[in-house]
Design goal:
Elements: E1 11-17, H1 22-33, E2 35-44, H2 50-63, E3 69-73, H3 76-80, H4 110-125, E4 129-131, H5 147-160, E5 168-170, H6 178-188, H7 210-222
């Protein structure tokens, strides 16, 4: 749900899913601005850059002095497979930003698994918002990044939780371009230098996977230099 559609202007406590990437970093900055308190949730699923993403999560949580933080693993997604992020036998292909095909990096129904965990924690904390850094610009390749997916999942939460539970899914950057996300992050003072978006590498970002390419293009179109280091510099 878009932030502008929520009547209550400020939430007492919000949960924000933080992978450690740029989009979730900016979403955390927005959640912090619109909440009295934020609780940060990190979910590992056996991905190639699991350790580096976890470090980025902890660094971002430390930056915002977050006390309520939870890191859990759903590594069964690795056993299920079907994605180059979780199966080393499937190659992470170099990006083609013009392609409309679902990329090999798509993890089947991953975001639904993550939102389910966030909902459970939200019920316990009595949080009324779950922030997630989904971007519709990615939705041609990632079907669980579409606005209609989050609208449907919010209805599922309403149906499957206690009667007094009121939880909204907030996707504050879903209609922004990557360049606009970069500029929003700069505006809010988000620690983009602490974030990690690469799907392949844990030392220097590869610069050629889908996530790196989208991020680099965002900084390029925003007229800014990405503060993290890359092995290669994709430009478009």
């Amino acid at each position: 749900m878009n932030e502008s559609k929520i009547q209550n202007p400020k939430s007492k406590i919000s949960i924000c899913l933080v992978s450690g990437g740029m989009d979730s970093c900016v979403s955390a900055a927005i959640a912090r601005q619109n909440s009295d308190e934020i609780a940060l949730l990190h979910i590992s699923y056996g991905q190639r850059t699991e350790r580096r993403e976890r470090k980025a999560f902890e660094d971002i949580a430390d930056f915002y002095n977050v006390e309520k933080r939870l890191a859990v693993s759903i590594e069964y997604l690795t056993k299920i497979g079907g994605s180059s992020l979780t199966d080393e036998q499937i190659e992470v292909l170099e990006t083609d930003l013009e392609s409309k095909e679902i990329p090999t990096s798509y993890v089947p129904f991953r975001n639904a698994n993550m939102l389910s965990i966030a909902t459970s924690w939200a019920e316990v904390l009595r949080a009324n918002r779950i922030y997630i850094g989904a971007v519709a610009e990615d939705s041609s390749g990632y079907p669980d990044c579409r606005p209609e997916f989050y609208a449907a999942f919010e209805r599922t939460i309403e149906t499957g939780t206690k009667p007094d539970t009121q939880i909204k899914i907030v996707t504050p950057i879903i209609h922004l371009s990557k360049a606009e996300i970069v500029l929003k992050g700069i505006e809010l003072g988000a620690p983009l230098h602490l974030s990690w978006s690469c799907y392949c590498s844990e030392d220097l970002a590869c610069g050629t996977c889908d996530s790196c390419a989208l991020r680099l293009r965002g900084f390029e179109r925003a007229g800014l230099k990405d503060p993290i280091l890359y092995k290669n510099q994709f430009t478009n």
